[in-house]
Amino acid sequence: MAEKPKNPHAQLPHKRPRQSRAQFTVDTLYDGFVRIWRRDGPEAATTRAIAEETGYAVGTLYEYFPNTTALLSGYVRNCIEQDIVRLREYNLSSEGKPWLERLYHVIRVTAGQHPNSPYLDHEMLLREGLISEERHHRHAFERLAQIWVDIVSSWPDLPVRPAPETIRLMFLMVWGVRRYKLIAQVKDSELGNWLDDIHTMCRALLHADRPSAR
């Protein structure tokens, strides 16, 4: 099978921060980028504007990102990392709580409806779709899907042991709604109580699923 050509528009950060000081710098750059994006529009989020907004030199920004396209790519990846951290932390802190309550929280975080969910919008996802390669999307899907499998499978009070495929399907439903809702610019008012409805569907899957054969 012929290898798929790489996306000529793909832009990646120069490096990922390894130390806490570097992580603080990158997080500050992301915060400044989002503030400008939301306040003044995407075109206003230039390297110079981000440097002025955050108080860093332009050269500091270039240490991590060759341009604002790469910064956007890094920011979207960072949003996924934040979701993963939030899901893991909640699962540890919610031990002993009923699985229905834990399920609702996992759905809420994955759907971007948690109060501390990172900011994403229509234009961000459209541009990110142009610059990311297929393998990046697949990697993000696999990481988040596996987090769901690990978390949901760990709940001791589930009515049945769900198959991993069932849990991956639930994740895909929630993640797909989050992304396509933004891309298609679907308003909450058009979907009614969509978060509760997704919870009901996932709950039904977990009640109906057969134990996985092991």
Automatic annotation (TrEMBL):
InterPro entries (alphabetical): Homeodomain-like_sf (IPR009057), HTH-type_TetR-like_transc_reg (IPR050109), HTH_TetR (IPR001647)
Signal sequence, renumbered to the chain: none
Domain HTH tetR-type residues, every copy: 23-83
Alphabetical list of Gene3D superfamilies matching this protein: Tetracycline Repressor, domain 2 (1.10.357.10)
Keywords recorded for this protein, A-Z: DNA-binding, Plasmid, Transcription, Transcription regulation
One function term, GO molecular function aspect: transcription cis-regulatory region binding
DNA bind region: 46-65
Record carries keyword Transcription: yes
A Pfam family assignment: TetR_N
Stretches the record annotates as Disordered: 1-20
PANTHER family registered for this protein in UniProt: HTH-TYPE TRANSCRIPTIONAL REGULATOR BETI (PTHR30055:SF234), HTH-TYPE TRANSCRIPTIONAL REGULATOR RUTR (PTHR30055)
Protein name as catalogued: Bacterial regulatory protein, tetR family
